[in-house]
Every structure is written in C-alpha cells, then in structure tokens.
Design goal:
Layout: H1 10-34, H2 41-71, H3 83-112, E1 119-120, E2 124-125, H4 138-174, H5 185-195
Antiparallel strand pairs: 1-2
Helix pairs in contact: 1-2, 2-3, 3-4
Length: 198
C-alpha cells in the first residue's frame, strides 16, 4: 500500500463535507421543484423558497471555503501520483470551487429579476442584485438565466461524480490514502475496514 499522505485541517474538512451535504439537498430540492406531479403547487412553492434560501448558504460557504483555501494551502499531493493526475485533480478542484460560487450567483440573478423579493427562510427579504430588477426585459433575461442554472446543475453533478469517483478509485483500487486526507478520523477507520486494511 502507498504511504499515507498529509491530511487537510479540521476547518477544511468541515467546510468540504458541509458544502457536499448542502449541494445534495439543493439538487434534490431543484429536482422536486421541476419534476412533474411529485409536489403540488404549495409544495413546490415551499421547495423553491428552501432552494433559494439554501442557495444563499451555499454561496456563503463557498466564499468561506475559497478564502480558507487561499489562506491555508492544502497538503501537497503525494509524490507517487503521476503528474497528469495531479494536474487533473487541481483542475477539478478549481472548477468545483468556481461552480459552487457561480451556481448560486446565477440563482441570485434569477430572483433579482422577479417582481417581488424572495425571503430567506421566510424571515427577511433577500436583496436584489443591482440593475437586474429594473430592466424592462427582465422576464426574457430570467428565462435565459434559468436555462443556465439548469445546465450548471448538470455540470456540477458531472464534476462531483468525477471527483468522488477518483477518490473511490484511489481508495479501493490504488489502495492509497488520498480519500482519507479529507475524511474525519471516525469515518477513516470505517473506510480502512471496507478496504480490508487495518
């Protein structure tokens, strides 16, 4: 088995898994909002309000994760990884960081073209971004933004799948500890047992 590589710090792990969890919730809510007859009109409205509110949380967490990453460089990838794989891993990470920021920003642009303010979990209005709310053709702009938002959702699914698949490959096929760099200690022990190692 390959030598163990250094771990990410606790804050990076918390932000990583919190963002992952919130993204899953967002994708499920987005699907429920647009799927046929799973929810009635009221249910879709509730799902949309939750989707919008959680989207603002995603944007905040994404900004925190990016700032933390810039101020606290991650541990170096292990020397046994080929150069192409290191470059690919870095590229996927930065693409995911970008998507985590762009996706909720586009969502914020969408709600800024609506005739009324969206509420953050029903507590207070989310401010509109400048300019968009006062445009005369904001309905047409909203349709374009909604298509972009929908496309970005699938791009995120693809890159998250690529990221997770690469981690699983390293853990179960390459049998190295790349996945454990970002895994809490308790789950790390479980993953070791699933792999059949001590």
């Amino acid at each position: 088995m390959q030598a163990q590589s250094p771990e990410y710090n606790g804050t990076a792990k918390i932000l990583h898994w919190l963002i992952a969890l919130v993204l899953v919730v967002m994708l499920v809510l987005g699907w429920l909002m647009t799927a046929g007859d799973i929810l009635d009109g009221h249910g879709k409205s509730v799902a949309m309000q939750a989707h919008i509110s959680i989207g603002m949380i995603v944007l905040t967490l994404g900004l925190l994760r990016l700032v933390w990453r810039l101020l606290n460089p991650p541990p170096q990838l292990p020397a046994f990884m080929p150069r192409w794989e290191k470059v690919a891993a870095q590229a996927v990470h930065w693409i995911l960081y970008s998507l985590i920021l762009i996706m909720p920003l586009v969502g914020w642009m969408i709600i800024s073209t609506m005739s009324h303010n969206a509420l953050f979990f029903g507590l207070f209005p989310i401010p509109n971004l400048p300019v968009l709310h006062d445009l005369p053709n904001k309905k047409d702009i909203r349709e374009v933004l909604e298509n972009i938002h929908w496309l970005l959702a699938w791009v995120i699914v693809a890159f998250v799948g690529l990221h997770a698949g690469a981690a699983m490959k390293h853990h179960f096929i390459e049998r190295d500890d790349i996945l454990l760099r970002m895994t809490p200690r308790l789950f790390g022990r479980i993953l070791h047992r699933l792999r059949g190692s001590a």
